[in-house]
Amino acid sequence: MLLSLVCITDARGGGGGGWQPVFFDVTQFGAVADGKTDNSMVSNLSISMQCAIQSRDSILESMERSVPLEGKSEDMDSPRGTTWVNSVIFRGPCQGPMVLLINGTLMAPSDPKLFMSDHWIGFQYVDGLVIKGGGTLDGQGLSAWSYNDCFTNSQCKPLPVTMRFDFVNNARIRHIRSINSKNSHFNIFACNNLNMSHIKISAPEFSPNTDGIHIGSSNNIKIAHSVIGTGDDCISMVSGSQNIDISDVSCGPGHGISIGSLGRSPYEEHVTGITIRNCTLNGTQNGVRIKTWAPSWPSVASDFKFENIFMSKVNNPIIIDQQYCPRPNCDENAQSEVQISNVTFKNIWGSSSSKVAVTLKCSRIVPCENITLVNINLSYDGPGGGPSSSFCSNVRGQTIGTQNPPGCL
Ligand SMILES: *[C@@H]1O[C@H](CO)[C@@H](O)[C@H](O)[C@H]1NC(C)=O
Ligand SMILES: *[C@@H]1O[C@H](CO)[C@@H](O)[C@H](O)[C@H]1NC(C)=O
Ligand SMILES: *[C@@H]1O[C@H](CO)[C@@H](O)[C@H](O)[C@H]1NC(C)=O
Ligand SMILES: *[C@@H]1O[C@H](CO)[C@@H](O)[C@H](O)[C@H]1NC(C)=O
Ligand SMILES: *[C@@H]1O[C@H](CO)[C@@H](O)[C@H](O)[C@H]1NC(C)=O
Ligand SMILES: *[C@@H]1O[C@H](CO)[C@@H](O)[C@H](O)[C@H]1NC(C)=O
Ligand SMILES: *[C@@H]1O[C@H](CO)[C@@H](O)[C@H](O)[C@H]1NC(C)=O
């Protein structure tokens, strides 16, 4: 059994006994774990999820205890079998929580045309979810990346995301690896109280749009103890990301940890309360970044803390870019209306591969307010040598403690 869906029933109604796991073995739904057979039948799993669950007053702890796992099955590197899985959606509401164990390698179909929707494995409207098992999700992106024409074609059909969570509350995802996703590895939308830890993500530096974890319209999201190397942002947070806590994440290669792009659409939800601590960025295009479109719609981005972060040869270690416009023919005079305020960068050290290690390029019409830099030590490590420098425009704030490069606030 390689992919097992476990629904937990509360047997107490029948005279005590606590939580009883009910196993659904994918092989019972026609899946063959031989690494060759295309298990389209696995999509029947979404039917099995409408399972015989009695109660919803559960505690995730008791769920986890009640699921037997092989001794070493949380180890990332233990060799397991391989099974192919077509696109699946686990759609609630389920009347109780569920656990998905993945302890082998699941391979996505390589042809993007075989996907029914914009993702490979999706969870929607689930309250109470645990995903674990030490298994690997192989998105088989290599063959699909060349279909990505989103840089030149604004009508492009996005490639499928490896795992999507929409309207999922009270979830824990851990000890899962994702490799070579076709689009983002994980996408979190409209979720509340979702924690991810011990996640390993990898895709080559050249793979297009392969964000590690993309978050939007979600509250109380925690990401910890994870290693991400990919072709786009390691973690990106867009409109409506609130109370996000990221710690002990190592990122590289990739485009860094980004808030934005913000301000592209009208009435965007505010982005507030993001803390990023104890992270390492190695060889990435950006370190910690806030980017907003210019011109843009008005919105608010505030209350961010970037703390205890080590950078090794990062191109733009600290960057606020309110002139973000990746398309050709941008209007240099256009200004962003996203108000950025209350941002602290504290204890950030290491090396920059470009001379400008700190860039605070804010909007002329809504300048950045209350930006604080505390103990920054970023040296230039690149051709020609010499000191690093900083760039500021339209920003108000303060510097405290060591400032290398010298502050420009
Ligand atoms: C996966 O885990 C299940 C449940 O613990 C176990 O029965 C099975 O042998 C495991 N499979 C592999 C390939 O480790
Ligand atoms: C996620 O982590 C936070 C902080 O440790 C904790 O309060 C919350 O209960 C956790 N949520 C879940 C679903 O485990
Ligand atoms: C970050 O690292 C510091 C110093 O090692 C440690 O005291 C703190 O608990 C860590 N915080 C998180 C959230 O990992
Ligand atoms: C950065 O990554 C490179 C290439 O993988 C590796 O050789 C190097 O040791 C890493 N540096 C740090 C400081 O982790
Ligand atoms: C500046 O921002 C910090 C947090 O980033 C906050 O604690 C402080 O109160 C703010 N100060 C003002 C004057 O807004
Ligand atoms: C910034 O911090 C100050 C002081 O804590 C607070 O009064 C203000 O409302 C904050 N700004 C935003 C946009 O949250
Ligand atoms: C800044 O970092 C350099 C190494 O890159 C180190 O030699 C120096 O002591 C550091 N300065 C401070 C004030 O921490």
What's the tally of helices?
2
Strand content: over 45%
Topology pattern, helix = H, strand = E: EEEHHEEEEEEEEEEEEEEEEEEEEEEEEE
Radius of gyration: 22 Å
Low-pLDDT ranges: 7-80
Helical proportion? under 10%
What would the CATH topology of the largest domain be?
Pectate Lyase C-like
Please give the CATH architecture of the largest domain.
3 Solenoid
DSSP, total strands: 28
CATH superfamily of the largest domain: Single-stranded right-handed beta-helix, Pectin lyase-like
The geometry reads as globular
Could you describe the largest sheet, including whether it forms a barrel? 17 strands, mixed
Query: Can you give the mean pLDDT?
Result: 82
CATH class term of the largest domain: Mainly Beta
What structural category characterises the helix and strand content?
mainly beta
Bound molecule kinds, no repeats: 2-acetamido-2-deoxy-beta-D-glucopyranose
Number of domain modules: 2
Report how far the terminal alpha carbons are from each other: 59 Å
